Structures are given as structure tokens and as C-alpha cells.
Amino acid sequence: MVVLASAFAALVACGLDVLATGGGPAGLEDDASAEGVTLDGAKRDSADPGDGSQVLLPPVPDPFLDAGLDVNPQNCIDSCDGGSCDGGWCVLDCTAQDSCGANVQCPPGIPCDVECRGRASCTKGVDCTQASACKINCAGQGACISEPVGCSGLGCKIDCTGQGACTKGVECDASTCAIACTGNGSCINEPTTCNADICSVHCGIGGEMGKDSCTQGVACKTTQRCDIGCVANGTCRNVPITAESAGTTIVQCTGDGTCNRGSILSGAGEAGVVCTGGMGACGQKTYCDAGKCFATCATDNLTFCCKPGPTCGIKELPGCTISDGGC
Q: Is 156 a domain residue?
């Protein structure tokens, strides 16, 4: 996370950043260094009023940028049985209804693109754990539902955009993972799990778009960064979110009823939660035992339990309930 040291000096004296909505960090509205900057240091979109009504998620990482992929077309031709080759990628086409009914397995050692666009396609899940990298698109209604979607390698991009898609969970342990559960009721019966250097997990798009996704929670463990966005109504509920990183962790709960079982944040780096959703969002305690902890809240009360220590202080702001008990 990009931290503007001059802007945050007043809040980090005890090691805890507690940020309020309303023009950026509390008490820093006139600080030029904070102008046009979101919570993670990215430039604020011109349409964002800056009053906390819109929270911008960090950009989704490109899992394939600088990944050093071998996209030799001949390797694809030699290995891509049952598929076609496109620029060295093995493309498995499951666009017809009820297509690819058996477990879809990508060939080892080459990049693979699985397109489960048909209704009830890839119902036995997708296994991309042996490929060098993978794109998995479960876009059909009820696609990828009876077995997990799994991905490893240098980079993975997993999109569960179909209604009721990926209902047996998503598992990614590539170097960089970008997971989007944006179909209504997607990723619901098993957790969405990411173990990587960089993880990005987005549950929903906002409001009713992608509602009730990731209802068995999100678990993230990274060496560099973990971004979890529960942005549609009813997402990331029923079980606590867990996130651990040696770098930076941010959990954003911006939809109604999101993250209603709280979050557990840990690791050596900086970690925090943004809770701007209503109707019981962040309904139970969020625990933080990271190197540095922060919290942001708006209309809903957030009970934020920061484990006492030299790098963790407590500060209360309107709309938030901050506690150091019970960690």
C-alpha cells in the first residue's frame, strides 16, 4: 500500500491508522499530498466525490504480465489435445450447453484458456494445476458447479461470471491470482481460497450485481499483497474472512450485509478493513494482528479488535466502535 507519510503522521503515532469517510483521511482534508488519492494511494477517479460514498478497489493485477510464459506455438500444437491453439495458448471451448461434462483438465507445461460459456458447462469443475498459466471463464449459468475450480502456475485469471457458477469453490496458488466471483450466487458452497504472491478476489460488482456471492467466505495468504473486495449486497457472509500477508492486506466490505461474520487479519505487513456497507455489514468483530493495522467505517458500526502491541494503537471515530479486548 502506498502510504503518504506526511499526510498520515498524525494518525500513525501509535501505529494504527483509523480513517474516516469524508474527504480522505480524518483531519487531513487540506493536505495537498492527500488530494485525489484513494485509501491505497491510487489516484481517485474524477467521478468519485471523495466523501466515502464510493470506495475504489485497487486495480486488478495482470497475472500474465512479466510472468515469463512460454507461449511457443509448437509446444501448444504438441500438447493441446481436444483443443485449439491461439498464440501458444491451448484453448478448450465449452461454449455449448451441457458441454465438457467431465472434469476439464488442462495440459501440463503450457498456458491454457478454458471457456465454460455454455449453460451448465464444465459441471465437473476445471483442473488447471499443471499448466504454466491459466485463464478460466465460467460464464454460463450453472457452469463449473459440481467440482472445484483449481489453478496453479505462473499466473491465473479466474472469472465466475455466470449465475450460480463455481459453487464448489475456487482454489488458486499461482504466483499471481486474479479471482472474480461476479455472477449472482457464484462461489457459494465452498470457500474461495488464494495462496500466492499477489491475490485479488472480488465478490460482486456492486449493489445487486453479483449479489450473494462468496457466501462461504474468502481465505487469502500472500507474500506481497492481498486485496479482497466484497462489494455486492450479501457477499462474503456466513464465515469470517481470513487474510495473512507479509506485505499489504485490504478487505473492503461495501455492500449491504457484507462480511457479517467479521474478518481475521494477520501477517508481518500492513492490514486493514474498509466497512462502508449497511444492513449489518461487518456485523461481528474484525481482528487484526498484523505489523500495522487500520480501519475505515461509515454509517455502520465496526468493532475492530487490534491486538495490543508496540505497532498497534487504538483511536475511535464517529460511526466506528474500536476495541482492543478479546483478541
A: yes
Tell me if 7 is assigned to some domain: no
pLDDT in tens, the chain (327 residues): 322 222 222 222 333 333 333 222 222 122 222 222 233 333 333 233 333 334 467 788 899 887 778 788 999 999 999 899 999 999 999 999 999 999 999 999 999 999 999 999 999 999 999 999 999 999 999 999 999 999 999 999 999 999 999 999 999 999 999 999 999 999 999 999 999 999 999 999 988 999 999 999 999 999 999 999 999 999 999 999 999 999 999 999 999 999 999 999 999 989 988 888 888 888 778 888 888 888 887 766 678 887 766 566 555 556 666 665 556
> What is the DSSP secondary-structure string of 127-181?
EESSSSEEEEEE-STT-S-SS-EEE-SSEEEEEE-STT--TT-EEE-SSEEEEEE
Q: Which three cell numbers stand for residue 327?
A: 483478541
- Residue 158: name the closest of 80, 48, 63 by CA: 63
- Please tell me the total count of domains within the chain: 1
Question: What DSSP line would sit under 256-292, residue for residue?
Answer: TTTTTT-EEEEEEEEEEEEE---SSTT-S-EEEEEEE
C-alpha cell at 226: 492481498
Domain that holds residue 86: 13-21+60-323
CA 215 to chain centre: 13
Residue 3, domain member (yes or no): no
Q: What is the DSSP letter of 32?
A: G
**Cα(180)–Cα(241) distance, integer angstroms:** 16
Has residue 93 been placed in a domain? Answer: yes
Residue 55 · residue 77 · CB < 8 Å? no
Distances (CA, A) of 120 to 83, 125, 142, 213: 19, 11, 5, 18
- Grid cell in block for residue 85: 491453439
Strands 192-207 and 170-172, sheet pairing: parallel
Instruction: Report the amino acid identity of residue 117.
Output: R
φ, ψ at 307 (rounded to 5°)? -60, 125
Q: What is the rounded CA–CA span in Å between residue 219 and residue 176? A: 15
